[in-house]
Amino acid sequence: MSETEKITINLGLVDLGQVDLLVQEGFYSNRTDFIRTAIRNQLSTHAEVVRQTVARKTLVLGLENYTRRDLEAVRDAGETLEIKVLGLASIADDVSPELALETIDSLVVLGALRASPAVKSALAGRIQSP
């Protein structure tokens, strides 16, 4: 499982030209290096806001993995989950759509959700936009 997610951005031609100039002058190894650095700088600038928001919204920060065994235990306890993750939420491939529906009431993921297409489809009505 990859620890990165591919994104696409649209950038104005003048901005893109300036990025290319900085790459050409050796400040960055390539466009991706520039973009990652810019993102990290902004995240560092806003780190306290992120920390406070994660705490306020009771988000799990990082990787949260749900296995068939985990969800069966939730079901057997007569409970359900409200999943809130900032990072990666992963539902194992052996989790059936039926088990997911029985145990997951809602799902908020700021980042990426990894699950089988069948589970994603089954949970579509329970996946909340951030």
Written account of the structure:
By secondary structure, the protein is α/β, with parallel strands linked by helices. It folds into 2 domains: 13-45, no CATH class; 50-128, no CATH class. 46% of the residues lie in helices and 24% in strands. The chain has a 4-stranded parallel beta sheet. Strand 2 (81-91), helix 5 and strand 3 (104-114) form a beta-alpha-beta unit. The longest helix has 15 residues, at 31-45. The two termini are 23 Å apart. The mean pLDDT is 93.
What is the topological layout?
Layout lengths: L12 H12 L6 H15 L1 H10 L3 E7 L1 H9 L4 E11 L5 H7 E11 L2 H7 L3 E2 L2
Parallel strand pairs: 1-2, 2-3, 3-4
Features:
130 residues, alpha/beta, 2 domains, 4-stranded parallel β-sheet, 46% helix, elongated, Ribbon_hlx_hlx, CopG family transcriptional regulator, Arc_rbn_hlx_hlx, RHH_8
Outline of this structure?
The protein has 130 residues and is α/β, with parallel strands linked by helices. It is built from 6 helices and 4 strands, in the order H-H-H-E-H-E-H-E-H-E. The protein has a 4-stranded parallel beta sheet.
Count the beta strands.
4
Cα-based radius of gyration, to the nearest Å: 19 Å
What fraction strand? 15-25%
Percent of residues in helices comes to: 40-55%
What is the helix tally? 6
Order of strands side by side in the largest beta sheet?
1-2-3-4
Note the gap between the termini.
23 Å
InterPro entries: Arc_rbn_hlx_hlx (IPR013321), RHH_8 (IPR041088), Ribbon_hlx_hlx (IPR010985)
Organism: Rubrobacter tropicus
Protein name: CopG family transcriptional regulator
